[in-house]
Amino acid sequence: MSDTDHIRELREPEPTGAAAEPEKKPEDAKSFAWFLVKLVLIVLLFRTLVFTSFNIPSESMMPRLLVGDYLFAAKWPYGYSRYSLPFDLDVGDGRLFSTLPERGDVAIFKHPLDKSDYIKRVIGLPGDTIQMMDGVLYINGAAVPKEPVANFVLPTTAARGCGPGRARFTVRQDDGSFACSFPQFRETLPNGVSYNVLDLTTVEVDNTPSITVPEGHLLMMGDNRDNSQDSRKPAVANGWVGMVPVENLVGRASFMYFSTDGSAEWLKPWTWFTAARWSRIGQPI
């Protein structure tokens, strides 16, 4: 037997192996398709039962939440209803595994009339009597302690300022930049939950009649007391929310996963990073 014949004998099995290779491709495609199906199911279960995402569109929850904050809200603490399910699935009235929020929770809910998403702080539970007198919150006849703390300082630009009628709050910082310096107060609810609020001036809803929260409803308020359309007035579409049915709860705000100051530009990719408020990312609510 020649050396050439010996080499030929060693190479003869190769075509058999090459021909068998394509037989694996249908199996690989099937496995990938099953992976995609499982991924979609996991995402749907996550959005349905665990968390939903929300971004802050207004100043009503300053100083805790700023325009440009992105957060996750946990769904399981309050149970589930058609308003907490994705794609606005109509599964009837009521809530499954319903649990009332605690005073002081920051909750996402659907507006009672137009069903748009809102975020406010839970102040009154069913049966509570709530009143505002001279900017002080009263719960069941007792004043909620409201202690002045250091001003809330928010960087801004001279052009943007601090908003209509708030030029007096604009200050120049040591580095020459501008900021808004807003009066800030610490409130402590009867259950011990504390949080900061802004109170810039006297507005109509600094004084309200005594309101008893109906059964199955909640009274919600924004932390930015002079710039929040909340339960201090009756519900109006695209505006004041009035008493919020417990059924309309979506979830409890949990933590921030991103925050941007709004200065990013699509055509300038580096601004995507400079606009991020890195110190806020990951913060609990």
TrEMBL record:
Annotated compartments: Membrane
Record field: transmembrane: 32-54
Domain of life assignment: Bacteria
Enzyme Commission (EC) number: 3.4.21.89
Membrane topology label: Single-pass type II membrane protein
A single GO molecular function term of this UniProt record: signal peptidase activity
Biased composition (Basic and acidic residues): 1-14
Keyword Membrane among UniProt keywords: yes
Region (Disordered): 1-24
Cited Pfam families: Peptidase_S26
Domain Peptidase S26: 32-258
UniProt enzyme class: hydrolase
Catalysed reaction, written as an equation: Cleavage of hydrophobic, N-terminal signal or leader sequences from secreted and periplasmic proteins
Keyword set, alphabetical order: Hydrolase, Membrane, Protease, Transmembrane, Transmembrane helix
Gene3D superfamilies according to UniProt: Umud Fragment, subunit A
Record keyword Hydrolase present: yes
Family to which this protein belongs: Belongs to the peptidase S26 family.
PANTHER family cross-referenced by the UniProt entry: CHLOROPLAST PROCESSING PEPTIDASE, SIGNAL PEPTIDASE I
Protein name, entry field: Signal peptidase I
